[in-house]
Amino acid sequence: MELTATNIVIICLALVALASTVGMAVNRNKGAGKGIGESINQFAIATVVLPIIAILAIAGVLSLEVTGTLLGAAIGFVANGRQNRIAK
């Protein structure tokens, strides 16, 4: 595998997703009685799903329309949860 700028970006995004997944697992196992709440779901979308969508888009697996739809849905989910918490 040749180290081009595209490959370096893909590797960095994959490392972010992997580190976030490990961090979430460690955090959930550290505290007894912790469940899966709304904030951990938003964190997972922002740090795992968005990089994976970006990787697939950069690799050419996803079309522009699908990429835009997935990014919009993910960002909307995260932003909506933040607004609901502030409004309460």
From TrEMBL:
Q: Which residues cross the membrane?
A: 48-79
Q: Which UniProt keywords apply?
A: Membrane, Transmembrane, Transmembrane helix
Question: Know the name of this protein?
Answer: Uncharacterized protein
Tell me the organism.
Kordiimonas lacus
